[in-house]
Amino acid sequence: MTYRSVALVLHVLLLLVQPSVTAEQIEWGRSLLNRDAQWYSSAEARAVADSVMLYQSPQGGWPKNTDLARPPRTPEDIPQPGDGRANSLDNNATTLPMRFLARVAYATGEDKYRAAFLRGVDYLLAAQYANGGWPQFWPLRKGYYARITYNDSAIIHVMTLLRAAVQAKAPYDFIDDGRREKIQLAIDRGIGCILRTQVRQHGRLTAWCAQHDQDTLAPAWGRAYEPPSLAGGETVGIVEFLMSIEQPSDEVVASIEGAVAWLASVQIEGVRVERFRDRDGRNDRKLVSDQDAPPLWARFYELGTNRPLFVDRDSVFRYHYHELSHERRNGYAYLGTWPASLLKTDYPAWRQKHGLP
């Protein structure tokens, strides 16, 4: 019997066993992690969890861009390995369903939810490169999907989950000791990869690229408009993760200090992004002067020069926001305020916590 056939049989059995319970009205997303503790033992939560389990791949991962709260009606509704969505770490795939299942497993004590979560742990451990990084998809796909992927916080989501799981606290207290040892090794390798991929300029530690080559660790292309560069957004998530290490090594401290200094040095002042309608009636965006505007940061900074980069689908480097096509200017976040709270609040609090001068 094929995987799709098994999934369909399981789905039918689910409907027969729980005919009055449906997950159809639940919106799948991170908000499901913020429910009251009692809700995770409810029939509604279990229905969502049963639906989530149907989407888990034979390898143990989950697909991206899929409504996991809506049970598949046919086997074709389940993304299959190699189809472009299955077995991904992108867009909260795999890590979000694992975090949800852990809550339901803890609340209900049901072995099936624990087993699905542990299969996810095994998937994450198998997907890690020997150098400590993780690809965007595993099993590996050709192209940028195999890069070490900080883009959209993929690796940080993995490492945050694993670090919570290794601590033997609710809702992860059902994880066996053998897996905890493997998880700790994976975390240590992951931190090592983060430290090795931080880019140096003129001997100084700066930031990270959204993607790094899985062999050389050098900054690498992602999609056509995601160049080898320094990432103003992803760097913030990496620094926040490093700051959450309870006993940071001197190397970790130096990494944080270098990244924060770099972020402070590349902020863009005196402009803001303004929305307007163009002569054709389309919504558009432009940069306008505003000396009172809060600082902005670019999504991409050119290696070596730290100039903000605006790269369109043609992969040509541009240095001015207005040079982007209408489609990219309005369909991608090239500018943002990502480091603002880090620089203003989180970093000073971290220095104070660790008694740094």
Please, could you describe this protein's structure?
- The longest helix has 21 residues, at 177-197.
- Strand 6 and strand 7 form a beta hairpin.
- A two-stranded antiparallel ribbon has the order 1-4. It has a two-stranded antiparallel ribbon with strand order 2-3. A two-stranded antiparallel sheet has the order 5-9.
- The chain contains 10 helices and 10 strands.
- Mean pLDDT is 94; it is low at 14-21.
- It has 357 residues and is mainly alpha-helical.
- 38% of the residues lie in helices and 8% in strands.
What key attributes describe this structure?
two-stranded antiparallel sheet, single chain, mainly alpha, 357 residues
Layout of SSEs?
Blueprint: H1 3-17, H2 43-54, H3 95-108, H4 111-127, E1 148-149, H5 154-165, H6 177-197, E2 200-201, E3 204-205, E4 211-212, E5 230-231, H7 234-243, H8 250-265, E6 271-277, E7 283-289, E8 297-298, E9 300-301, H9 326-331, E10 335-336, H10 340-353
Antiparallel strand pairs: 1-4, 2-3, 5-9, 6-7, 8-10
Helix pairs in contact: 2-3, 3-4, 5-6, 7-8
Quick rundown:
With 357 residues, this protein is mainly alpha-helical. 38% of the residues lie in helices and 8% in strands.
Q: What sequence of helices (H) and strands (E) makes up the elements? A: HHHHEHHEEEEHHEEEEHEH
- Low-pLDDT stretches are 14-21
Percent range of helical residues: 25-40%
The Cα radius of gyration reads 22 Å
Please tally the helical runs, counting DSSP H or I stretches of 4 or more residues.
Answer: 10
